[in-house]
């Protein structure tokens, strides 16, 4: 795949433009967040910021403008807005209002799931592992067809289209620019060690279950990593930086993009159905079955 192919695909164009808006606004807010702009959800450490809601509003407004027949579901449930409602600067305003993104196949209605900032605690504390995540599935069949995760402080974007593989680029490709794409295929054969990534709930009752799970899972691994972003963890599994990722209690917006990226990279993937079901992505069938047997 090259930049021309990326820029020509209607759904990837939409995801790329949405990510460009999100990353620019994250950069705007990164040094401006103060305690009064940060609130908590049900738990003091489950943070939400003015940046989360603004990014989701702008992305929702963009999607509804350029793909009006699609469904948009955001983590924060923020109301759609345009640059007229939230001044975002000339360049972004032009992107939001005058994007070349087409409606694509009129017979393919997409259900988009948007996480404006996955890893909000990292974002608030100045840690690099936070990202914008957008995944879409065919509203008629339920098949996941598009996923993109953009981590501005890591200067990395991961993306996948169903049947076309999973890819990584150093930055969001733009019209007229060039980008180097790397195909993702999971763990390279010569890579040593067995590393698993996971995350934990904010509630003590759920953490108790997750800690018990972890004791069993670690019988099959040498080490553990926790990035603080489910979307990034799934992409790291797709890259082969970790052998597997699992976690209970995720929202659909957490894994909508990353699960497809891992799947298109050749990993075994289990998506949650019920609220506390596990999300699993593993580089081999044996490792996948081992983790599932532990949960």
UniProtKB/TrEMBL annotation:
KW Magnesium (keyword) present: yes
Pfam families: Inositol_P
InterPro entries, A to Z: Inositol_monoP_metal-BS, Inositol_monophosphatase-like
Keyword Metal-binding: yes
Record keywords: Hydrolase, Magnesium, Metal-binding
Domain of life: Bacteria
Listed PANTHER family: INOSITOL MONOPHOSPHATASE, INOSITOL-1-MONOPHOSPHATASE-RELATED
Name of the protein in question: Inositol-phosphate phosphatase
Organism listed in the record: Brevibacterium daeguense
Lineage start: Bacteria, Bacillati, Actinomycetota, Actinomycetes, Micrococcales
